Amino acid sequence: MTPPAAPRGRGSCRAGSAGFPCRHGGGYNIPMAPIPHPDQVPQRPGKIVVISGPSGVGKTTILRRVLHDLPQLMPSISATTRPPRAGERDGVDYHFLSPAEFERRREAGEFLECCRVYGRQHWYGTLASEVDPRIAAGDWVVLEIDVEGTLSILERYPAAVTIFVEPAVPEQLGERLRGRGTESPDAMARRLEVAHRELREAHRYRHRVVNDDIDAAVAAIEGILNAAGLPAARSSAPKPSPAAHQQPIRSTESRSVSSEEPVHDRRPA
Ligand code: ADP
Ligand code: 5GP
């Protein structure tokens, strides 16, 4: 029997319940990379890993170290309309796109998910070209995306390993964002407002890691990935060290925890 045609056009660029940074009007008609019908889902030997958490919690810092330690893990480079920060490189930290180019790709259905965050200012999105070919090739691909993007990815990749990084106390977020020194007071206020909403969504993730001490957080995430069956590194496929690993990383006293609770409900209440 011929399976029905794959539905098109449903990703995270969708209007939805209130309270999420990515929610915005007019999303339902935007073409997205098609979600295949279950009968048409090809064998996907690779795996998606999603890392989320509020702005300033330390996701990027942790991920750089994890990618360095686990060269078999491939980063998905997101696209964004946000301007690069000092030291960020196009094609390494993000694909930095003009709003017009982002829109063109969005209209062309090139994103697995995309959304606009932080006061509807900038777009962020995961390009299908960053993920699908690698998964088909058996690689593990890690995405650093927000909660809304995670829900969309789980529709397509329900077996994704989802990890939420939390601060030990909420005050750490403001302190770290101030310490990073990349945001204007306005932008920081927007990020912190969204951060407090995002913290309430941590329960949707299979694993939770507290980033108080950076070494402990990195070790916890590497432990989660190894327990999930991350294949050993292929010695024939070396990967360049991520540039940002060269940045100094502060360390404080801390705890890191991980929980194995399943994701029961993938949609925001
Ligand atoms: P995110 O990617 O989640 O927005 P970053 O990785 O940019 O956060 O980290 C924000 C700031 O916090 C950076 O200046 C980073 O060096 C610092 N940082 C990260 N983890 C810790 C930690 N465990 N203790 C103290 N500072 C940290
Ligand atoms: P930043 O501007 O600090 O680099 O990233 C802001 C936030 O955007 C991050 O916390 C991350 O969760 C989110 N983000 C980055 N890339 C993507 C993406 O491709 N898709 C989605 N949905 N969110 C992203």
What do you see in this structure?
This protein has a domain of 142 residues: P-loop containing nucleotide triphosphate hydrolases (Rossmann fold, 3-Layer(aba) Sandwich). The protein is globular, with a radius of gyration of 18 Å. The protein is built from seven helices and nine strands; from the N terminus they run βαβββαββαβαβααβα. It has 269 residues and is an alpha/beta fold. A hairpin with a 4-residue loop joins β5 and β6. Bound molecules: adenosine-5'-diphosphate (ADP) and guanosine-5'-monophosphate. The site of guanosine-5'-monophosphate (5GP) has 16 residues, from β5, β6 and α4.
- One letter per element, helices H and strands E, the order comes to EHEEEHEEHEHEHHEH
Strands ordered across the widest β-sheet: 2-7-1-8-9
* CATH architecture assignment name of the domain at 44-76 and 138-246: 3-Layer(aba) Sandwich
Structural class: alpha/beta
Please report the distance between the alpha carbons of the first and last residues: 37 Å
Helix coverage percent:
25-40%
Biggest β-sheet description: 5 strands, parallel
β-sheet strand percentage = 15-25%
Radius of gyration: 18 Å
Uncertain regions: pLDDT < 50 for 5+ in a row?
1-12, 14-29, 240-269
Total strands = 9
As for the CATH topology of the domain at 44-76 and 138-246, it is Rossmann fold
Provide the fold topology.
Layout lengths: L46 E6 L6 H11 L3 E3 L3 E2 L14 E2 L2 H9 L3 E7 L4 E6 H9 L3 E5 L2 H10 L4 E6 L4 H10 L4 H15 L7 E4 L3 H14 L42
Parallel strand pairs: 1-7, 1-8, 2-7, 3-4, 8-9
Antiparallel strand pairs: 3-6, 5-6
Helix pairs in contact: 1-7
The protein binds adenosine-5'-diphosphate (ADP) and guanosine-5'-monophosphate (5GP).
